[in-house]
Amino acid sequence: MPALPPSLISSLSCAPALTVAETAGGLPEALAGLPDPRARRGVRHRLTVVVTAAVCAVVSGYRSYAAIAEWVADVPATTALVLGMTADRRPSEAMIRRLLQAMDPQLLTAAITAAGPPPLPRRPRRRSPSTARPCAAPAPPAPPLDT
Fold first, then answer.
1. Residue 70: exposure state from Cβ atoms within 10 A (0-12, 13-18, ≥19)
2. Taking the complete model, does pTM exceed 0.70, yes or no?
3. For residue 47, which of 30, 63, 32 has the smallest C-alpha distance?
4. Cβ atoms 86, 80 nearer than 8 A
5. End-to-end distance of the chain based on CA atoms, in angstroms?
6. Residue 87: what pLDDT?
7. Closest listed residue to residue 79, CA positions, set 146, 4, 14
8. How far is CA 74 from CA 58, 70, 71, 83, 138, in A?
9. For every residue of 82-123, which 3-state class applies, written as one string?
10. How far apart (Å, rounded) are the C-alpha atoms in residues 27 and 50?
11. Which of 31, 128, 131, 145 is spaced 20 to 30 Å from 4 by Cα?
12. How far is CA 45 from the centre of its chain?
């Protein structure tokens, strides 16, 4: 199943769609200060890459570790590159689960909260009532039934 875009709202609104880098905002920078609970030997994926991908998956509606790994596996190659992953080497479900379970939840929450939401793009101005398109005329009332 292909991954859903990070924000369905931006694709449905009049606002221009945001790129992954704009949507992620300062999240990778905020996560850079977190201590990595893993041993240095054998680390293949940076902490910021895995946690940013997990946050994007959760925001997209994927809640379990298996679903997050599915999102990571199915995300398009261009999105994977922006997140810092290569197309042929992505974190596995077991690696994502072990890393997220080993992290301090309060530190992770504080880092994600500190990143804050990305700035919203400016929306086009609404038309004034004098230039707005008229609504359709109401339907005529139904004739009464004779009983």
1. middle
2. no
3. 32
4. yes
5. 57
6. 80
7. 4
8. 14, 6, 5, 13, 47
9. HHCCECCECCCHHHHHHHHHHCCHHHHHHHHHHHCCCCCCCC
10. 12
11. 31
12. 20
Taking a C-beta distance cutoff of 8 angstroms, is the pair 85, 72 a contact? yes
Query: Shortest CA distance to 23 belongs to which of 13, 9, 35?
Result: 9
Residue whose entry in the numeric block shows the structure tokens 């991954």: 3
Cβ contact 107:32 at 8 Å: no
Question: Tokens 């994926």 map to which residue?
Answer: 45
Q: Which of 129, 122, 117 is nearest to 14 (CA)?
A: 122
Paired tokens of 50: 């895995």
Close Cβ partners of 63 (under 8 Å, ≥ 6 residues apart):
none
The residues of the chain scoring below 70 in pLDDT are: 1-25, 117-139, 147
